[in-house]
Design brief:
Elements: E1 9-13, E2 23-32, E3 43-52, H1 56-62, E4 70-80, E5 90-105, E6 108-122, E7 135-140, E8 151-153, E9 155-157, E10 171-178, H2 180-186, E11 197-202, E12 208-214, E13 219-223, E14 231-235, H3 246-255, H4 275-278
Antiparallel strand pairs: 1-2, 1-11, 2-10, 3-6, 3-9, 4-5, 4-7, 5-6, 7-8, 10-14, 11-12, 13-14
């Protein structure tokens, strides 16, 4: 069906189980606010009390001639010792963690207290809100060990402090042709909350490129800025999982079709490559591998630039 506006995005309610086809919620000409660089978390000081000396964490930061000071990004979990009857787990992300100081735990020579500077964000989606009566504190830092906890502690000073809620960044769907499910959602009284949807970007010839999940929390509509029968839709709290600002130019290149010239990715900074460059290709680009038996020569000029 021909339309008098360019359809660049589809709104699709995906089947979580993957057993049924997605349901179309709408088409739209453009999207604003989707691309966003997440602001850094405020810096905080935490004291990890009673870390066992034999743990990899203590061995890394308190032993050896060159102790580790920059732990990088990590995760903290507080889980019940007895999972069968002692409440839910809680999780926090730790961003750009740096060791500020460490000393033996008073009265316990087998343990060490470690002071770190970090950004703290609690995972509200997976975690609970109350602490187990017998908690176990586990710390995960891929820079020390990626597949299991790097260490633990008995308690953490500074963790349970009020933190200001980060402002939400809305996404605006410009020139939207809503389907019946989206119209039904918009007819509800505010605040409107619906199931998460996937926003699929289309190439200029209709090929599906890549998609991002949006939470339909508080959806508002108004007449299309250019008039006509379309509407503009604002999703005020779509979630924080957004493509970066650098990825927007990458998407524009891919929208013309699968790149045919070598090293087109090399013009982008670290935010646009390598994952930002390949993400539009990961969906349904129709890329084919080289035929068996063919020798392929690679251009290695930009290998070190990734």
């Amino acid at each position: 069906m021909e339309r008098d506006f360019p359809v660049r995005y589809l709104l699709v309610r995906e089947d979580i189980g993957g057993e049924e086809e997605g349901v179309l919620w709408g088409r739209c000409a453009e999207v604003e606010g989707l691309f966003m660089d997440a602001p850094p978390l405020p810096r905080e000081v935490l004291t990890l009390r009673g870390c066992p000396r034999e743990s990899l964490l203590v061995q890394a930061v308190a032993a050896g001639a060159e102790p580790v000071r920059l732990l990088g990004d990590g995760m903290l979990s507080i889980e019940p010792v007895d999972r069968s009857n002692d409440g839910p787990s809680r999780f926090w992300d730790l961003e750009h963690t740096a060791v500020l100081a460490q000393w033996p735990t008073p009265g316990d020579p087998g343990r060490v207290d470690i002071v770190v500077g970090t950004g703290v964000r609690e995972d509200d989606y997976w975690g609970g809100k109350r602490l187990p009566s017998s908690p176990r504190f586990d710390l995960w830092f891929p820079s020390i060990r990626g597949d299991s906890p790097s260490g633990g502690c008995r308690s953490i000073d500074g963790l349970f402090t009020p933190r200001p809620q980060r402002p939400t960044q809305p996404v605006h769907l410009i020139g939207c042709e809503p389907a019946a499910p989206l119209l039904a959602l918009l007819c509800r009284p505010l605040p409107q909350e619906g199931d998460p949807i996937t926003l699929w970007r289309l190439a200029r010839h209709g090929r599906t490129m890549t998609g991002y999940r949006l939470d339909l929390d508080t959806v508002e509509a108004r007449p299309y800025v250019l008039g006509g029968a379309l509407i503009d839709v604002t999703i005020t709290d779509p979630g924080d999982d957004r493509p970066t600002l650098a990825a927007r130019a990458v998407w524009e290149i891919w929208s013309d079709g699968v790149p045919t010239l070598p090293n087109q990715w090399a013009q982008f900074d670290a935010g646009g490559r390598p994952s930002g460059w390949t993400s539009p290709a990961s969906a349904r680009t129709g890329c084919r591998a080289s035929p068996a038996g063919r020798t392929t020569w690679t251009d290695s000029r930009y290998v070190g630039a990734v």
